[in-house]
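Dear colleague,

Following up on yesterday's call, I've attached the two folding results inline so they're easy to grep. Please treat them as preliminary; we haven't cross-checked anything against experimental data yet. The first protein's sequence and structure tokens come first.
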Amino acid sequence: MEKKTNFSGPRRPAGPRPRPGQKPTQRGGRSDKDPYATNEQIRAREVRLVGDNVEQGVYPIEKARRIARDMELDLIEISPTAEPPVCRILDYQKFLYQQKKRQKEQKAKATKVVVKEIRFGPQTDDHDYNFKLKHAQGFLKEGSKVKAYVFFRGRSILFKEQGEVLLLRFANDLEDLGKVEQMPVLEGKRMIIMISPLKTQPKKDSSKKDSPKPESKPAEATPEVSKDSNPSDE
């Protein structure tokens, strides 16, 4: 008696096999975790190839895929909204690694800039000035910007030149730690100056510079022969 085979319905056609090292994708589209469409996932009829390893131009999708297969690389859709979509031929895993590395570098550079405010009056005395100068030095050392301003109350606006001199003196006293990003500008009742911290430069090794040079031994003096002792004169 022959055994009946269990048949649960028509089988789905198998999709393209993934290349060695490439993760299998869902049928009819890319995985939710994949930010780019590749190879058979690209649905456009033609694409624009860019990059250094191909002849740039617009190609039918089948020809672009064939070029990628011949190079044993992947066809990656990097700009799907363009007309036609822009693609590059690269190793997909290597491409993803480079993208993550680039994003990490950009995130590290995009550090949040903190701005600290210092307020003066047009007739600030030396004690108050030095107190606020010390605070500004601490702000610049920690990498924050300093926004210093003189606030003119009522008729004190007549002393705006005095306020400008005060802010320029303030910037001059901070020149070792910061540079002027914006010169004094009058905005309403406030005259503002912006100072950003200087980029820290790597300290040079001063051990070599400060090390004392070895003292050179004085040359031995050659004995002088007096004319009186010349044997030829005897």
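Below is the second protein, in the same order (sequence, then structure):
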Amino acid sequence: MSDVSKPMPSTIRVWDPGVRIFHWLLAGSILLAFLSSEEESALSAWHIPAGWVAAVLIAFRLVWGFVGGEHARFVAFLQPAALGRHVRSLLAARVEPSVGHNPLGALAIIGLLALTVATIATGAVGGEDGHEATAYGLLGLIVLHVAAVVLMSRLTGDNLARAMVTGRKSAALFPGVGDASPPAGIALPLAAIVVAAAAFGVVRLDPSGFSPVPRGEAGESAESDAD
């Protein structure tokens, strides 16, 4: 009987579909919100819907951070003790790839989520100056995040953007590491309930929130409701 060894896989599964879909939908909604931020913009009617879609996506990500795939869970990447080691390795030019989010990337993720929530909240309550300030803070952190993704991809040979599309990374970079654990069995139904509840809350707060209504008409409608 011949001894045929099982070939090693060329890639490992890292990111589950839920976190990948969230990532790109949130990026798209934030981009649309910025492109439609000026009232003179042809896309201005989509500014408020884009913000509310981002709010629903944040609600999804919060629950997915507890029941999603292994590397999507907050407990997997929120490790303050690892931050110091990671920074020291960067300063010593010993850059190593991370299977999931590295410690600095984890801070960026939390910062992006928090600033997105703050931007939505200030927009919802009508604080124009605060809304603009948090929006530009969010934009600045996004630019920094993208730059860090490009830099770390080049330094480690681990294409982070591609991994967030395919969900997989090269097994050669992580010897001995297997596929990530999938989302919990309750993940999809629980996430669906949270998303539905968040969308319902948006509609209760702003009945035309998901409809692309020109900014002027939206204001007139709000004044009419107040009367």
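For the second protein, one point worth flagging: The longest helix spans residues 128-156.

Best wishes,
A.L.
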